[in-house]
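ugh ok fine here u go
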Amino acid sequence: MISAGMRIAQGSATVAIVTTGGILAPSLASGYSQPQLALIVVAISSGSIIASHVKDGGFWIISRYFNMSMKDTLKTWTVLETVLSIVGFGMAALLYTFVR
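structure:
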């Protein structure tokens, strides 16, 4: 949720991942197995790709590469990235319940 909020607020997936990692690192330092940590990383990464919009460089690359208007890019690319984000987070959360 932290990385999703960061992504929406400032637009960069990279900054969202790094900032969220920095915020959570002290609390994740011990008590988690390697598979649990891997799934936490997947959840953070999934949150960081939600709602790609005009502040995102990838948004403009897709827009220009496929010769799409801003409106069309918002209707396709932004929706696709949001679905990928939600599914990725959901799968990480689901798998986390089975991993020790």
